[in-house]
Design goal:
Elements lengths: L3 E2 L2 E4 L2 H4 L8 H14 L6 E5 L1 E7 L5 E6 L7 E7 L4 E2 L3 H14 L1
Helix pairs in contact: 2-3
């Protein structure tokens, strides 16, 4: 018997909200919107506390700050757990997880 696994992604910042209309870099906005639409169940989002702080200044994105996870923050920020659209199952489960991680890194 094959078990189905339900994966999810913890999302913060522009990975959640950036799209073609509000992107600093048009292609990046399109890619993030497409990734969310194709891979995530936005209707099942769940807010969770997580240790977020602003990181380095990104000169490629007009001197905006990146958001990073850090263990040394005084108060938790809010991230969103978004389930994957497709379940992970069968003998290729490890490759399925790897493919999802690749798509996330492209976004």
């Amino acid at each position: 018997m094959t078990k189905k696994l339900q994966g999810a992604v913890l999302v913060i910042g522009s990975l959640y909200w950036e799209n073609e209309q509000n992107a600093i870099e048009l292609e990046k906005g399109r890619a993030r919107q497409a990734w969310r639409d194709e891979h995530l169940r936005l209707d099942l989002k769940m807010p969770v506390g997580c240790p977020i702080r602003y990181g380095r200044v990104s000169t490629k994105r007009f001197n905006t700050y990146t958001m990073v996870f850090a263990g040394d923050v005084a108060a938790l920020g809010t991230g969103l757990v978004l389930p994957l659209r497709h379940s992970i199952e069968g003998p290729s489960w490890l490759m399925d997880i790897f493919k999802e991680a690749l798509e996330l890194s492209r976004a």
